[in-house]
Amino acid sequence: MVKEFRQVLSKLSPPMILKDRKYQLTGGLLCLLLVFTAFTFQSGFDLPDSCEQIILVSADDWSSTTGSLLLLEKKKNQWDTVSTATTVNFGKNGLKWGRGLHANQEANEKQEGDGCAPVGVFELGLAFGYNEQPAGVSWPYQQLTDRDYFVDDTNSKDYNTWQTISMDEANDPKSKWGSFERMKRNDHLYELGIVVKHNEDPIVKGMGSAIFLHVERAPGLPTLGCTSMQKADLLEVMQWLDFSKNPLFIQMPKEQLSQIVW
Questions:
Q1: Domains in the chain: ranges and CATH
Q2: Closest CA to 113 of 54, 153, 169, 164
Q3: What is the pTM of this model?
Q4: Which of 221, 192, 197, 229 is closest to 210 using CA atoms?
Q5: Among 18, 53, 138, 243, fewest CB within 10 Å belongs to which?
Q6: pLDDT per residue as tens digits for the range 179-215
């Protein structure tokens, strides 16, 4: 079974099906089986019955700066892949445990400014972009302005939150926060994006902020801690997301998956 698992991880391609919650393998999706097993027994996480969509991202190991993304959807109590594998980019320093729906980890945990993408199970926040909501996207979306900021100042009460400066105030973010990220950038990175709800419930200062799925700078180039991909691939993800299906974002190294004891 371990050999089969490694073969699946090396390909990360459909067709692959898994029966919901009972961990019964009906096709080749041992990867997803192990993700669910890992979070049930190692990280105190049970996949909610209401979850019917998953963005599954796999990395070769903790130091990886690239990985693979698959879209999975539950149909008639079975999980089916609904996409081919897409290449994504991680943080320049690889990955570390994030803070999401899974239990917090005591070691190898993401910190502010560490250049690592978060590992774990996460809900998704707003989608965003420079232009009006793209055709075919039903997920909650916000068109960015030059007054939108994401605060990464660990000394601020607004840490790890999206803030919009009111039109009746001067647009002077430096007077409000010691460190922040402009959401409407002068490049293409946030032309499309989705907020990953890392370190949000509760927000713990210093444990990482402003984590997004966003457009890659160039193929293979790492990020500062987000997960990036080609614009066309991200648009496909956004068009597929269905709020009523309670989608989750799961991101893990293959190394972690392969350590599950059978």
A1: 2-144+184-258 (2.40.440.10)
A2: 153
A3: 0.84
A4: 197
A5: 243
A6: 999 999 999 999 999 999 999 999 999 999 999 999 9
